[in-house]
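We close this part of the discussion by returning to an individual protein. Part of our work consisted of pairing the sequence of a single chain with a tokenised description of its backbone. What the numbers capture is local backbone geometry rather than side-chain detail. The amino acid sequence and the backbone structure tokens for this protein are reproduced below.
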Amino acid sequence: MLKKYGYFIVLIISLSIFLRCARRGSPTGGPKDETPPVLLQVTPPSATTGFDKKKIRMVFDELVTIKDLRKQLIVSPPMENFPIVSPMNASRNLEISILDTLKPNTTYVFNFGNSIQDYNEGNVYKDFKYVFSTGKFIDSLKVTGKIKDALKSKPDKSIVVMLYEYNESYKDSVVYKNKPLYIGYANDSLNTFEINHIREGKYMLMAMQDKNNNYLFNQKEDKIAFLEQPIFVKGDTVISYELTLFKEKWNYKAARPIQASENRFIFGFEGDTDNVKIEPISKQTNDFKYVISKEPKKDTLNFWFSPKQDSLRFTITKGEKIDTFTTRLRKMKPDSLQISNLFSGDLPKGKYFGWKSNIPIMKTDTTKVQVFEKDSIRIPFKTKLSEDRLEYLIVFDAKYGESYRVKAFPDAMIDFFGKTNDTLEVKLRTKKQDEYSVLKLTLKGEVDYPILIQLTDEKGDVHRELYTEKPENQYIFEAVPPKKYRLRIIEDKNGNKKWDTGNFLKRQQAEKIIHHPKEIELRANWDIEETFSW
């Protein structure tokens, strides 16, 4: 009899445990629960003044769990030690442990974002903010504004906006060393920001693409935006500010040269290589010579020399900075001349045919080059050697819907080492005029000349551009391949015919770009008239 009762008791206990566990899972039937959890109690209450606690406790009406806390929880002012929230698994009670020593007379904001969710369905307790002050009152002022990107039509996501206290000890280097006093994040869809619970005072306002999530500026990874002058936050004034993000060029640094072949060194750099001067300073024979070329789209210079050497000593000079390097040469294979076509098949309207060399071209002979129209009619042409001596351009009047043949005989091009080309021949054709589109553009808005007007693709790569130093009634892009384009205007402040980024420590903003708000679709055999207003 006792044995039967024992079995019965075990059965009841097992069933009870099963039912408890079942309640924690998702229901198998009925409508889906879409109700977010409800906060029943928080201790100390939000908006507490004279706060001196180390723990904050929250009680919810159902089981909750924490997701992506490091990404979602924003504490302003930032803390050196990230708060601990426990437990991370399912519970009705959450406890926040503050590890930092709190600053006196300061209002703190804990913004949990979307980190708190119910356990069963993942319904989010959205944008919960817990506020307290270590002083006698809660600071209530705010700063608002808009985020833009200097180069792109839309800024990146997760942009942090920062306020640094501006006083006699403020230095611009603070962005590299110290966390800001107040922070907020831009709204990714609206590209607006709002920082709340600020006390009255002077601040430097900045924004950053903080890839390391540490609120410190890393020039090599982060974009930055700033206002040149401090702002004064006070109770009777609410001003909306505009911040424009840009990626700085890295600070200049020369790397040790690397031998790449028997007679070539590669000089790598960080930052701007404009006005960099490389000079061999070791003792050389009278027949020693060298030439320097820049690799396209790379911060790299190639140093070609002849004849072979056992060692070389260089100085690299940029402005007042001088670096000296000594190198010993190893036995390596020499570079051999390789020449390729810049174009074959279709020759785009407005582009020049030419040959590209892997070794600088030092001499050319136009008598060894011929250009034919319709395969047999010789036509006049001009030639042009690129600044880096790696491209030899053949310039001729290419008509619409025509075929051409370009031929180069040996000795048309002679490289740095005295090697020449083999016989080269390429056939080209041009498209008919009705295969292209024409864009007629009218500008309406204030702009500082000179300007660059650029047609780009979605990635920002430039396909066509016009440069003008004064206003025109209309700007015409002829013979544009039909496709969808983006349009932008660059205010070329320094007149160098390219966009220049900014520099925070030099207090230089990036050159202003005005983006057309929508794509422009150009169709074959169409003249498109577009008015760009801003």
User: Anything to note?
Assistant: The chain has a mean pLDDT of 91. Residues 2-24 form the longest helix (23 residues).
